Every structure is written in C-alpha cells, then in structure tokens.
From TrEMBL:
Organism: Streptomyces tendae
Family matches, as Pfam families: DUF3097_C (PF11296), DUF3097_N (PF22845)
Name the UniProt record assigns to this protein: DUF3097 domain-containing protein
DUF3097 domain mapped to chain residues: 20-79, 111-268
Length: 273
C-alpha cells in the first residue's frame, strides 16, 4: 500500500531554512522577542551571552531561528575552536557597543534637555550614535529659569518622558530648588557639580593641570580664558578648541558620564520605574 506523508502543509507555507551563524565573540545580533541587541561575549551549554551598548548582559538560549543579524533571521551555533578569530566589538565614543549599519530610530516623544548649546554639542559628540539608535532628541534650554515653563508645556507622561541635565546642581542652590519643583514620575532632573560644562572635560585632555578658580561675580568662561592666557574675547572659539580635544567618554569626568547615561536610560525606559 502506498505511504503518504502526514505533513499536509503547502511548501510555500513551510518555514524556510535560515543560515547558521557561529556565535563568535563580537558578533552583534538582536533577540527579537525582547528587542535586546548586543555583542556576543560568551557561548556555553546551549546559551549565548550578549552585552548591549550600556554594558548590560543577557543570556539567551540558542534556539533555531532565534536571532536577527543585520535584520535577517539566523540560527546561532557554537563557534568551532578552529574557526577564524573575530575581533572585539567596536565601540562608540560613549564606550557602548557599536551596531554596524544600524539605522536611526524615529524620534521618540520623550526628550532630553540640556542647559546650553555647548552642553548639547558635547552630548552629541560623545553620545550621538547611541541617541540616534534610541531615537532620543536633545534640545537645550535658554537657562534653568525657563525650566518650569518648558516642563509645563511639554507635559511629561508615560510615553513622553522628559530628562533634564543641569549645570552646577548642588543642594541648596537656585538650580536645586527649580529642579525639585519640576521633578515627577515622568520628569527627571539630574545635574553635575561643575559651574560650566567646560569643567566636565578632564584638564589633562585639554593640556592643563586644572581648571582655574574664578572669583564669584565674574563671568566664569571669561575668567578661565584670562587665567589660562586663552583669547577671552571669543569664548565660542575657545569652546570649539576644547571640544576638538574630546575623543570619547574617557575625556570626560565621571560625574557627567553617569548623569547622561541615567537620562538616556530614563527617557528610553531602560532604567528606573
């Protein structure tokens, strides 16, 4: 008697075979169920460990058709010990894992505000690649005094979080009181202790021993330029020279790095409540 297959699925509806890709260290893939994207840093016991751009680790089973590689479905398999060595994942200026060929995400409703144009330029230079992937737009305030009106007009909510970076945010200061007045579940105001964003650049990165102290009541940028023998009549040009010396997060003080990463996590929902 003739035997028939029990599989009556039409050929065009059957899952198509997908490539098997060795899970070599440094390979950047996405787990579609969670949206977690990162570089392979380990592979054992049928699982793969990925590290995302924030340095967070997640372990996933290496199931068939379980990952996306440059947008294509693939099956990860254990790399052969004799296979070619893969170089360590490249990094963005912020130190996160670079995602080759990644497209900028459509802008989120959420925003990050910084206190001035120089702040925005520094954030763009170091975190620009990360922000574009996450779809986060950075805008700048005219001054911290404008913050209550901006927050009220923005009307932060669960799907439109607002993060704000403020200069010289120290307890008891005017900036501190304003920040406290607008902070809410969906609006986070953080700050660094520096009088100006210039000071968040490590002195060694700009070739000085330390940022000079400027007497109260004197314009800080002008005072710094005069103390260091820089042209005080054009602080904008001085800032561009400082910015040119910033190559990555390694040129910035930790007090700024932590605050910017905190804001990105908050606005994207990667951290906090």
């Amino acid at each position: 008697m003739r035997q028939y297959s029990a599989d009556l699925t039409p050929p065009w509806k059957k899952p198509q075979p997908v490539p098997e890709v060795p899970a070599d260290p440094g390979l950047v893939v996405e787990e579609p169920g969670t949206g977690f994207c990162g570089a392979v840093i380990g592979c054992e016991a049928g699982t793969v460990t990925l590290e995302d751009r924030f340095g967070k680790h997640r372990v996933f089973p290496m199931e068939p058709r379980g990952f996306l590689l440059e947008g294509r479905v693939v099956t990860l398999v254990r790399p052969s010990s004799s296979g070619p060595a893969r170089s360590a994942p490249s990094r963005t200026a912020s130190g996160s894992v670079a995602v080759p060929g990644a497209r900028a995400r459509v802008a989120r409703a959420g925003r990050i505000y910084v206190e001035g144009r120089h702040d925005a330029e520094l954030v763009e230079k170091v975190w620009g690649d990360d922000l574009r992937i996450e779809g986060v737009v950075v805008e700048y305030l005219g001054g911290v005094d404008d913050l209550p009106a901006i927050v009220a007009d923005f009307a932060p909510g669960p799907d439109a979080r607002l993060g704000v970076l403020v200069d010289h945010l120290v307890p008891g200061s005017k900036e501190w009181r304003i920040a406290e007045s607008v902070t809410s579940e969906h609006a986070l105001v953080v700050g660094h202790p520096y009088i100006d964003i210039w000071e968040a650049v490590k002195p060694s990165s700009v070739g000085i021993d330390a940022w000079p102290r400027v007497p109260r009541g004197q314009d800080w940028k002008t005072g710094v330029c005069r103390a260091l023998g820089w042209p005080s009549e054009n602080t904008g040009a001085v800032w561009q020279a400082i910015l040119a010396r910033v190559g990555s997060y390694k040129d910035l003080e930790p007090e700024l790095l932590g605050r910017v990463e905190e804001l990105i996590d908050f606005v994207t929902g990667s951290g906090g409540a």
